[in-house]
Amino acid sequence: MFSKFTSILQHAVEALAPSLPLQEDFVYHWKAITHYYIETSDDKAPVTDTNIPSHLEQMLDILTQEERERESGETGPCMEYLLHHKILETLYTLGKADCPPGMKQQVLSFYTKLLGRIRQPLLPHINVHRPVQKLIRLCGEVLAAPTENEEIQFLCTVCAKLKQDPYLVNFFLENKTKKLEASKDGGAGLVKEDPFSPDTGQNRNQTPTSPSPVHSTLPNNDNYNLVSSLLNLTKSPDGRIVVKACEGLMLVVSLPEPAAAKCLTENTELSQLLTDRLAQFYRALPQSMDPLDIETVESVNWGLDVYNLKEDAAAFAGKRALISFLSWLDYSAAVLARAVRERFFVAVMEPQLMQTSEVGILTSTALLNRIIRQVTSEALLQETVYFLLGEETGPETLAGITQHPLRHRLIEHCDHLSDEISIMTLRLFEHLLQKPCQHILQNLVLRCLEERNYIENKQQEEREEREHMENGQPHDAVDLEEDPLFSDLSPDNRLSSPDWLSCSPPPSTEHTKPDGKTEVHKIVNSFLCLVPDEAKSSYQVEGTGYDTYLRDAHRQFRDYCGVCQRWDWRSSPKSFEKCNLDSPFFEGHFLKVLFDRMGRILDQPYDVNLQVTSVLSKLSLLPHAHLHEYLLDPYINLAPGCRSLFSVIVRVVGDLMLRTHHIPEFTPKLLLVRKRLLGLEPEGMSVDHVTLLEGVIVLEEFCKELAAIAFVKFHASVSTSPDPLATVHRKQTDE
Question: Where does the record place the FHF complex subunit HOOK-interacting protein C-terminal domain (predicted)?
Answer without folding.
Answer: 587-679
